[in-house]
Amino acid sequence: HKCELLHQQGRFPEFIDESLILAKFYLRHVYHRQSVSKFRTIARGRSRTLMVEAGLMDAGTTRKAIEESETGKMELEQEDRISCDEWYQLLFQLCKALVKAKQFNTLQHVACASAASIKLLDQASDFQKRRFDVHLLCATAAYLNANAELAADHMRPILFKYRHNYAMWNSFGQLSRDLLELRHQKFTVRLLLKSPSALPLLIVNGNYCMQNGRYKFALGLYQRALLRLPRSAFLCLSIGVCFLHLATHRGSLHPCRHTIEAFAFFFRYLKLRGESQETYYNIGRAFHHLGMLSMAVNFYEKVFPLEAGLEKWELGGHNSKSPVFNKGNPKLTIDPCDLRRDAAFNLATIYRASGRIDLARNLLYQYCVV
User: Fold this and answer.
1) Which of 123, 239, 265, 312 is a good FRET partner for 54, with 20 to 30 A between their CA atoms?
2) Is the pTM of this model over 0.90?
3) C-alpha angle with apex 50: 79 to 125, nearest 5 degrees?
């Protein structure tokens, strides 16, 4: 058909226009509804009932009801010229073209209308796979359109099935961080009760507990995860931070013991992570937080001779030789992973508090002036 020819020829603006005309016809029962984005659940039998209750479609818009009218028969004959599989493939081609054209609002509307389509999902043999794909498509479209609430709601059914997927939990964590809603934290707690052995759930719930100031609960979850990943530098850092907060808490009964335990995990983190700007800065910041300024100065100064970069073993192949972190890249003015500016600012505050204004000024001019 015409849309396929336009896509093969690379005429994407015309392809988008023609595909949207086809989408308006194929999804005509839900496409023009303003509340189509409110539909966030895809299920076989329940989906039609939920759409009727939400006002996304009329109660009589089933295929049997449409076939009873003359105009409905003509519409179905034209609609059946494009099979469900062909429309499914065209949908993803249209979404990719909309992303390239940066039409994110239209992308979200098309994705949500496809999620509410009866034929696209209910009449498909591989319903579970398409349900996952459409949920992920709606979540991606909502995230690109700066609608974090809708994106998080479409991520939740995916997490029910893929509870051990770190990438999915990382995406959901970024969305819930932007929303700051308690219901997403309750969702992760309920899921942890159903799957207590899921390692990503232990880490995510530990992060939520630390964010809410419940350091003892976070400590328990992190230690359970550390038994599964004994060489995880991130877990050692998180446990050290928990002990550090407990040591500086007003009602702490054993602050000295908690301080020793915190730095035991910090130095284990240093051993596992290796010498880098990140490790020296984090340990220096911990000493600075406790008021041990001489030790903080020592670790802050170790940050400056080191180059910024991400270790290959930590992020799957992205290291300091990558184009993003190459100092010879003319398009890159400031490396976002360079911690020398942060270390210089903290060190300057220490020097300023001790009366060494000249040293503080030199550090700020050298590292913090753009």
Assistant:
1) 123
2) no
3) 50
